[in-house]
Give the backbone structure.
Amino acid sequence: NFEGKYRVEFVHEADTTEAIALFQQFGDSVTGTFLTKTGDYRFLEGNVSNGFLNLSTFDGNYIYLFKAGKDPDGKLKGEFYSGKAWYETWVAVKDENASLPDAEALTYLKEGYDRIDFTFPDVSGKMVSLTDEKYKGKVVIIQLLGTWCPNCMDETIFLVDWYRRNKERDVEIIGLAYERKADFAYASERVKKMVQRM
């Protein structure tokens, strides 16, 4: 039985990432996710076969596959595959008190600043800033995202629908995308495809 809450460490080369695993088991069927300080690994489904846990999901870009066995002491030892190239190992210990850093404390203004200020290019290269006339006197929601990030895509789907219903209420949304390459042409194409899809 793999059901429960676990304290998890993902290991990739010399890097370690802490997470929490939440699993529910119904017979041989298992559902759950891994929570990290910046998001989660989506809704996972799978099974227990020959004593091994197998969970997977597809986020539209990548297939995620998690496998694990259980030591006699209850510790899980597993592998994580994402796409064609990403591989990590992971270990998990059952811990009902496992916790992550306070999400509200992760994002803040640096000391000495009382507002957010930026100027970034849009997908066509035109500079956009909060001081632009379009945003004056309006509530502005700033979304930090990456087109590669499944949690960001879930958030974008929510915000697109929300904006359609609320755009007449003096509100705007600016999405600041950070992509996997620092090349503007690459990033712009990725964001344009996301905009067309959403």
